[in-house]
Structure formats: structure tokens, C-alpha cells
């Protein structure tokens, strides 16, 4: 632990509050504090559109960052991420099934089920002798994502009138967010809190599994619970906002450099940073690009970061 970690976390909390306030005000029409008292339209835009959208973006960014941090620690693999290893694709397939077959009913449940199945599938394929090699993890994730993409394409081919809704939803964004979506997204906090309870176990697992067992950690049980919680958080995020990539890859790496590897501080720091990142990504796309899907923007800066990590690891 670095002595400055608590101060950094407090700074990130303040930065998130400022970011959310700024994001609420920004948009095609800027909302000033005074206009809330002089214009009914300004208050309606703030309460019905901007505020639930910003809160949901913060919760989704928080959830993806926490899930990414947990997966990187669990697999002891810096390339692990809900988007890269297929968890998001599984959630997207489940949610798309709900849209096509049930007009969106049960989208959250099916997204969670899809994310869970995809995560455990990659885990069992990539696991060799208790370890998860980088190459095996990436190839397993790519192979599974390709299969899930084929199934998604088939569903889109047979979707009929739902095709347009599925296309925009898969790109990732917060266009039609309401307070009902905020309530669903709050489940991310429950899953994130469950993951945080394993911060000490993950610190011990960073040594190796044998030492962790000697120190009283039930390794296999911890892995299964953490995978389930990570899939739960990712499934909720995908059900609410669609497929948004690389948040869970970037923020854990950056925050690990700043606050250190102690997961008691890394989890909250990554969660806050992920929330800030996605709040600003949504605000920028909403303000300057006519509400372009936010998943496009995160992929634009996330993919080069992933390539940089891969090249750095190859050199090492």
C-alpha cells in the first residue's frame, strides 16, 4: 500500500462528483444553474434525461472497472478484461435473445446468464495446471467471441423489426436511459461490494495458489465466487448500456501504477476512475458527435492501449 492511496481515493471521489455535475450541464443545450428556476424545459431535461443518464454511466463504468480488476487479479493476467475474454459478448448474446424472443423482457437475467456461461467457458478452456497463460486466455476469448458473434449475427438476421434496436444497443450507449434503468444499474454496487470482500484473498493469491491455500484461502471457492460476481456485474452493465469495451482493461492498469497493487485500495480507485472515464466519454459523444455510441469512443482509445500492453509484455 502506498501512503498516498487514501488521499488519491478522496481526490477521485471529488473528481467524480465534479465530472457528474459537468456532464449533467453539458449537451446540445447547456443547462445553467439559473435556468433551472426560469425554465420548465431545463428542469425536465435535467431530471428526466441528463441525471439518470449520467448516474447510469457512472455505475456502468464503476462495474466494468471492478470486474476487470477482479479478473486480472484472479487470472494473474494483465490482459484479462470482461470485453476481451468474452464476458461482454456472452452478456450481449443473452440480452439480444431477450430482445428478439421476449421484446426485451428478462434482458437483465439473460444477460447475466450469458456473461456467466461465457466467463466460465473461457476459464475452463484456458486453465492449464492451475495457471492461465496469456496466449491461451486471449485465444480462448477470441474463439468464444467469434462463436458468440456468429450467434448474434444469426439473431440479427432473424430479428425483423428489432434489428435497428439491437444494432444501436450493441454499439454501447445511454440514449434511452430512464430511472428504471438506474434502479437496475444499482445492482452493480451490490456485485462490486461482494467482489471487494475478496480484496484480502486476491492480495494473497498474487503470491501463488499454494501459498494462498496454506494461509487459509479456499482458492477454488474464491475463484468461482469471484467469477460469478464479475459475470453478474458485467451482465448488468451490458443489459443496461450494451457492449462497451476496454474500461475494465485501462483503469485497473492506470490505478495500479498510482495507488499500488493492494486491492483494498485498488478496487475503489479503479471503480472511481472507471466511472469518471465513462461519464466523460458519454458527455463528449453527447455534446460533440451528435450522440455517437460511446462504445465507439472507448474502443478508439482502448484498442491502442491493449496493443501497447501486448507489445510491452512481448518485450518483457
Automatic annotation (TrEMBL):
Pfam families: FecCD. It comes from the Archaea. The keyword Protein transport does not apply. It is found in: Cell membrane. GO terms for molecular function: transmembrane transporter activity. One of its GO terms (cellular component) is plasma membrane. InterPro entries: ABC_BtuC-like, ABC_transptr_permease_BtuC. Keywords: Cell membrane, Membrane, Transmembrane, Transmembrane helix, Transport. It is a multi-pass membrane protein. The chain crosses the membrane at residues 49-71, 83-103, 109-126, 138-157, 177-199, 225-250, 265-285, 292-310. PANTHER family: ABC TRANSPORTER PERMEASE PROTEIN MJ0876-RELATED, FERRIC ENTEROBACTIN TRANSPORT SYSTEM PERMEASE PROTEIN. The complex is composed of two ATP-binding proteins (BtuD), two transmembrane proteins (BtuC) and a solute-binding protein (BtuF). Belongs to the binding-protein-dependent transport system permease family. FecCD subfamily. Required for corrinoid utilization. Probably part of the ABC transporter complex BtuCDF involved in cobalamin (vitamin B12) import. Probably involved in the translocation of the substrate across the membrane. This is Cobalamin import system permease protein BtuC.
